[in-house]
Specification:
Oligomer: single chain
Number of domains: 2
Mean pLDDT: 79
CATH class of the largest domain: Alpha Beta
Shape: elongated
Number of strands: 17
Bound molecules: adenosine-5'-triphosphate
Strand content: 15-25%
CATH architecture of the largest domain: 3-Layer(aba) Sandwich
Helix content: 40-55%
Number of helices: 14
Radius of gyration: 30 Å
CATH topology of the largest domain: Kinesin
Low-confidence stretches: 197-206, 344-355, 388-399
Length: 465
């Protein structure tokens, strides 16, 4: 059981952001490779801890090696993987995913997609003697809630179907077999040329669609004829900014609304997945958008998943960046347990389980911890966000530390309340004695009796209320 890998990447400041005269301009102050302090436009500070933070001087190679390489390697070995770039328009999603160009780009600037393609075929060629591989490539765009085949534009409305053994499928989508990275990149370039490009005030060439690159890697073992299939999906999401900020109108406004609807659906699915069982049962609204439906297997756990939160470093975009980072924090709590989709030989299926008692206990413990954290994380996160203590609940150890801290603080304040009450009791006792003495001095036995009855009943009600 592993968490989703969530990283943030701050691109260099644009020339417009550099010209901003109102501030020194930068909203993130690095603490270490995983943690930074974020300052919003009201100068409130939030500390974020993610799996890795890439600042403006980070290289494309570093992002690939940390975020994508392990997922690509597993996909070649039959474990599904998904890599998503998320963030507002102009935050660096496409730069991170593709680089300045897929084919004719210098080595240094190459994005995740061409690196994944090269890495995949390199790994395949180094293990060709133990297995035969078949790689197929598809490429689709989700635009205005329609899935369009970017490798065959006549297929403008691909249907999404579900199959018990293969999971989510794009019915009739073009799947081109590719035998090396040059061929794969050529097809990707064809697909990219077909991508719908809209215009908004914020970025004259911003893409207004989600784009998914899908690789199916089938491995036929030379030795025992076992077949493993790994699906690797890379998704470059459309920009997540608010429609009103773009100043868009007409069709562009409709595009922005549709994009926001599908990104909200993605947020809702993540919320449902990370909120634990609810009164409504655990309904996960995958069907609310094409995007969440296509990502259903990835989000539902049968896939390794990495999310790159692309951010502007500028205070001008602080509110969008804050919501991007909060989205990332939320996604971090999705639990994934990807399995290799291996078709076993009959002999392998008969083999007795070699799982030890300790391993079973470990698994049960993990499940218990998982349930506990699912229920507690939301409450804790809300409290800590309110208190300005944004944190990363990476492990149960962290949950326990946080709990211990809260419990000890609660005990301290209860102790203080008990001390105050004891002092109050002492003061009242002294007053009581004084009143009784006064009554005796006045020689009024009847009044003393009434007074003492009054005091005892007041005393009793004080301590039972
Ligand atoms: N890490 C980076 N290093 C250098 N330049 C970058 C980096 N990230 C982004 N840029 C530049 O910033 C600009 C916007 O980036 P990009 O087009 O990737 O944004 P985007 O998030 O994909 O936007 P959209 O939602 O419109 O697709 C581009 O000119 C890009 O070259």
């Amino acid at each position: 059981m592993s968490n989703v890998t969530v990283c943030a990447r701050f691109r260099p400041r644009s020339s417009k952001e550099m010209r901003d005269p109102s501030r020194d301009g930068v909203c993130a102050r690095p603490i270490d490779a995983e943690t930074f302090v974020f300052q919003d436009d009201k100068e409130d500070e939030f500390t974020f801890s993610l799996d890795r933070v890439f600042y403006e001087d980070s290289t494309q190679a570093a992002v690939y090696e940390f975020l994508a390489l392990p997922i690509m390697r597993d996909a070649v070995n039959g474990i599904n993987g998904t890599i998503i770039t998320y963030g507002q328009t102009g935050a660096g999603k496409t730069y991170s995913m593709e680089g300045p160009g897929i084919q004719d780009c210098d080595e240094h600037n190459k994005g995740l997609l061409p690196r994944v393609v090269h890495g995949m075929f390199e790994q395949i060629s180094s293990s060709n003697d133990i297995a035969r591989y078949t790689v197929k490539l598809s490429m689709v765009e989700i635009y205005m809630e329609k899935v369009r085949d970017l490798l065959d534009l006549s297929k403008a409305n691909i249907q999404i179907k579900e199959n018990k053994t293969q999971g989510i499928l794009l019915s009739g989508v073009t799947e081109v077999p590719v035998s090396d990275s040059v061929e794969a990149l050529q097809h990707l370039c064809t697909g990219l040329a077909n991508r719908a490009v809209g215009e908004t005030q914020m970025n004259m060439s911003s893409s207004r669609s989600h784009c998914a690159y899908l690789f199916t890697i089938q491995q036929d073992s030379v030795k025992d004829k076992r077949v493993k299939t790994g699906k690797l999906i890379l998704v470059d999401l459309a920009g997540s900014e608010k429609a009103d900020k773009t100043g868009a109108e007409g069709r562009v406004l409709e595009e922005a609304k549709t994009i926001n609807k599908s990104l909200s659906a993605l947020g809702n699915v993540i919320n449902a997945l990370t909120s634990g069982p609810s009164s409504k049962g655990n309904h996960i609204p995958y069907r609310d958008s094409k995007l969440t439906r296509i990502l259903q297997d990835a989000l539902g756990g049968n896939s390794r998943m990495a999310l790159l939160c692309c951010c502007s470093p500028s205070t001008l975009n602080a509110s969008e960046t804050l919501s991007t980072l909060r989205f990332g924090m939320r996604a971090k709590h999705i639990k994934a347990s990807p399995r290799a989709s291996e078709v076993k030989s009959a002999k392998a299926q008969e083999e007795p389980s070699s799982v030890t008692k300790d391993e079973k206990c470990g698994r049960i413990l993990e499940k218990m911890k998982e349930r506990m954290s699912n229920e507690d994380i939301k409450m804790l996160e809300d409290v800590f966000i309110q208190e300005g203590i944004i944190f990363s609940l990476d492990s149960m150890a962290e949950v326990e530390t946080v709990y211990e801290d809260i419990v000890s603080k609660t005990i301290q304040s209860l102790q203080q309340a008990v001390d105050e009450l004891q002092q109050k009791v002492k003061k009242l006792e002294a007053e009581n004695i004084g009143i009784q003495e006064q009554a005796l001095r006045n020689h009024e036995p009847g009044s003393v009796g009434k007074m003492s009855r009054f005091i005892s009943s007041w005393y009793a009600s004080f301590f039972t209320s």
